[in-house]
Design brief:
This protein is mostly helical. It has nine helices and no strands.
Amino acid sequence: MTLLEFARGPGLYWATIIFVLGIVWRLVGTLLLPRIRDLSTPRDPANVANGLRTIITRSLPPDELEKKIRFQHITGYVWHIGLFIVILFYAPHIAFFKSIFGFSWPHLPTYFITISAAITMAILIALIIRRMLHPVLKMISNVDDYLSWLVTFLPLLTGVLAFAHLGARYETLLGLHILSVELLMVWYPFGKLIHAFTMWPSRYQVGVTFGRRGIKG
């Protein structure tokens, strides 16, 4: 069995199982956390509106913090959008998703995907350097932060190398690319990357709770 065959076969199979079960385990565990019943009279019963409003307001930093975190704020949005474009609008990726879900969608030009990948990688490198040099970020960072960065960066790097046929045979590079994605899938439920699934519900719950207490979310 070659590296590519393993990546496309057992590697993908077990990574998918771990990814799905891990996500379910984290979400179910969150839902089963004990809650203290609030017996007070709600000051604002518009729970849904409060929750949705907070999802939007918490997506932008407060004016008091914007000046100090503008770089982190802007680059954070840009690299997430770039990664989203690379994953969902690259023609080979769409073909892979079609083999699973049975439908496809239009792809973007290859040069646009390449530029998006390059910008995303450059921003990720800038952010990890900033994390290592900034005294406060360095102090509050742990292994999870660096490992999550690594497993996010590797699929981009191996994907670019495979596209450019740099460093090894294409089949080997493609196998490494798929394995790097599977590494991301395996780590995803257990690190801070899980925030992609918990961020919106948690912000919604904060809005509901604050609204009940008469606090602006």
